[in-house]
Design brief:
five-stranded mixed beta sheet, about 20% strand, globular, alpha/beta, Metallo-beta-lactamase, Chain A, about 300 residues
Length: about 300
């Protein structure tokens, strides 16, 4: 867990201090209703899922501290405040940066055990700003809220070692956190925090097995998706994993694999993670190395 600070710094994931909040001054929080009582917010950082209704509001992730006021204004526009619960899908700061603000405002922060452990270690090392989850779980928990059964379950060693998937059973909506990057960048496998390519594939397969053509899928980053989008993502991960594994079996080096441009032909933006860096993550995941930085 000593690699937490570099990973956070690399992603600019730490919550912004008061003096740095001007970077969010022009940021607009876009709200889109995806089913009755379920919405998504797009801002800067991980996509936020929202359950809203007579019981109050549940947020799935909360982006950066400097955006909290704008997020709460968007919640007010939905007309069902206050925020009662915040679920962190994993520990990265673009999904947890608003924890301290929302916790002080009365929200209960919840997450997998490993999320609290990693955030707590970052605090000890002076890299975090607070807002630890106060309710944690090992395998999952159900939240009966706003007439909905919200099923929260842990997936092992996918994007990190603390990822949660959130399913709204009645609404047929799933929030996948950063186990699913939809088209805007190559996936980030946080090897230093227990992530793995096989876990990422297994997570996509698990969601596919429990979804249908009408399921709305909220990715951690990128536009809303459906089952076909997730199936294409899963198949891409499998194909690239298998190509890298074949190269490893044949004795190819990482440089040789990257030179073969294995990611060519896929409709994925060269965003935060480039194609070569994704191949590096897959290679190191398959060979047991955790010496990986996304940039």
């Amino acid at each position: 867990m000593r690699h937490i600070a570099p990973a956070l710094a690399a992603l600019a994931m730490l919550s912004a201090p008061a003096g740095a909040q001007d970077r969010f001054a022009d940021r607009v929080i876009e709200v889109r209703e995806v089913a009755p009582g379920v919405a998504v917010m797009f801002g800067q950082g991980g996509n936020i899922g929202v359950s809203h209704g007579e019981d109050g509001v549940v947020l799935i992730d909360d982006q950066f501290a400097g955006l909290t006021d704008k997020i709460l204004a968007a919640v007010d526009d939905l007309g069902h405040g206050p925020v009662r619960f915040v679920l962190n899908t994993h520990y990265h700061g673009d999904h947890t940066g608003g924890n301290e603000n929302l916790g002080k405002a009365g929200a209960i922060i919840m997450a997998h055990h490993n999320v609290r452990a990693r955030l707590a270690e970052a605090l000890e090392e002076g890299e975090g700003t607070g807002g630890l989850p106060v309710l944690t779980f090992a395998s999952g928990v159900n939240l009966h809220w706003n007439g909905e059964e919200i099923h929260i379950f842990h997936v092992h060693h996918a994007h990190t070692d603390g990822d949660s998937i959130v399913g709204f059973r009645n609404a047929n909506v799933v929030h996948m956190g950063d186990t699913f990057f939809n088209k805007v960048t190559w996936p980030y496998i946080d090897l230093t925090a227990g992530g793995s390519i096989d876990g990422l594939i297994a997570t996509a397969k698990r969601v596919l097995d429990h979804s249908d053509a009408e399921t709305v899928i909220i990715p951690g980053h990128g536009p809303l998706a459906d089952r076909a989008d997730l199936a294409a993502y899963h198949d891409m991960l499998v194909a690239l994993r298998d190509r890298v594994q074949q190269g490893v079996d044949n004795g190819e080096t990482l440089d040789e694999l990257q030179a073969r441009n294995l990611t060519a032909g896929y409709e994925v933006g060269e965003g935060f993670i480039t194609g070569p860096k994704f191949i590096e993550a897959v290679y190191k995941s398959l060979t047991g190395s955790t010496d990986y930085k996304p940039r």
